[in-house]
Specification:
Zincin-like, YgjP-like_metallopeptidase, 6 helices, alpha/beta, M48 family metallopeptidase, 10 strands, three-stranded mixed beta sheet, 35% helix, 2 domains, single chain, four-stranded mixed beta sheet
Length: 226
Amino acid sequence: MDFTYTIKRSAKRRKLTITVERDRSIIVHAPENTTDEKIEQVLKSKRQWIYEKIGHPQKYQDLPHAPGKEFVSGESALYLGRQYRIEVVNDGIEEVQFVQRFLIPAKYVKKDEALREWYIGKAKEKIVPRVKDYAHQLGVEVAMVKIVDNRYRWGSCTVNNNVNFNWRLIKAPMFVIDYVIVHELAHLIEANHTPRFWNIVRAQTPTMEKAKTWLKDNGQLLEEKI
């Protein structure tokens, strides 16, 4: 095999699946009793698909921090698909505030961490209720919704019907967030990316293609601190 991969076995898993993460790492999720030989056989049969995924424009390494871009007044940060000005405030506020611009208390030595916590709070506030609404529309049962720090996936679902979403999604437009939500929930109906799967997603999010294009063109921006 001319590529490396990581195997994750689980007693709860019934099917073997292959995932190519956005950092191009290859993860094999397999039932507990699957042999290494069987896994290698499946990987060989999926070789062309794996190469296509590795070469996909949405797969990339971390961007270096933009030169000269720091947490100072006059810079900007993404929120729901738009750039908003950052203003560092010396006194009068204790936490990050958003009033058509980001107000960040100067007391925070690591202002990126302060903004990160604000993003996570907003992701919980805005994404979690939408997941529940879409789950109701699709008729699926979701055990738990989590906002997580998963650098190389926008969303994921587990065999226990838990769904996870990357907090960085809150930087994207709402139509993109909705697409990622529906994408993960549709996997609770159809595990693989079959025509039926895409029909489910498209029916719930008519702007699916627009959202996929936005992520392809702008997804890497979501990884930046600002």
